[in-house]
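Please check this one:

***
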Amino acid sequence: MQHRRLGKTGPSVSALGLGCMGMSGMYGPADRAEGIATIHAALEAGITLLDTGDFYGMGHNEMLVGEALQGRDRDQAVISVKFGAMRDPAGAWLGDDARPQAVKSFLAYTLQRLRVDHIDIYRPARLDPNVPIEDTIGAIADMVKAGYVRHIGLSEVGPDTIRRAAGVHPICDLQIEYSLISRGIEDAILPVCRELGIGITAYGVLSRGLISGHWQGETTGPGDFRTHSPRFQEGNVEKNLALVEGLRRLAEAKGVSVAQIAIAWVAAQGDDIIPLVGARRRDRLAEALGALDVKLTEEDLAAIEQIVPKGAAAGDRYPSAQMAMLDSERV
């Protein structure tokens, strides 16, 4: 397994990370046993970076990851946790809470659910518009000093917020959506991160399965984010799947899968970028791991750019109400 350091101050992690969200129902029903088996397979393959959130399944995902890690060396996994997104008993989103006292309370519950004594990377899931980012980062910095957190990360924030956060405490990475059809970070966010020595953990590298090569217009069900995602709506999904067919021809010529091309493209954008794959089954994990062996030549990259030019996606990456709340979109 290849390894890359997360920014100037972060830990060394595997060149591919495992995003565990989908194991807790965000894309419809998930198989708990298969999720745990997938985490075990990832660790055995050398993946060290595991990403979760305290609001994934209202704590279910942290408990699942904690169960999967039982009996293993704690240092085998670099656990990244997002916090602050609030949900009601029906699963509806209620906004974000990143007040200093909330930060410390959320962390206390996370440590219990994961059954660990520290979190490797702790980050607010979104910017709380009611709390200065300096206050939130300052509270996490207190937890670093106390030994409960090792490193501080950010998620879905823009250049100004990144600079302000980094002025309080070193930031190891920014977690943000980045894929062939979600390239918004390239204009302003990625340059600021590189200036400050902050790594990128890229989620949505397959755009929630849309550009995996496996999505054939299946009907999404209750509890599946894609039911409301603009890119999966009629009129948009057909255009997006047409882009995938172009990638499929290139993939077949190289003897690899569409998903492997898409993941390899993200990894090829810089050694400071770690793709997070949301595999919730062992077969999908094995396919994603194969992307590490895909070498994209300059000719391949130019061909991909022609097939999927920047801005080619039909539809935004989130519904309009959520897009309006993203600090990363205010650039």
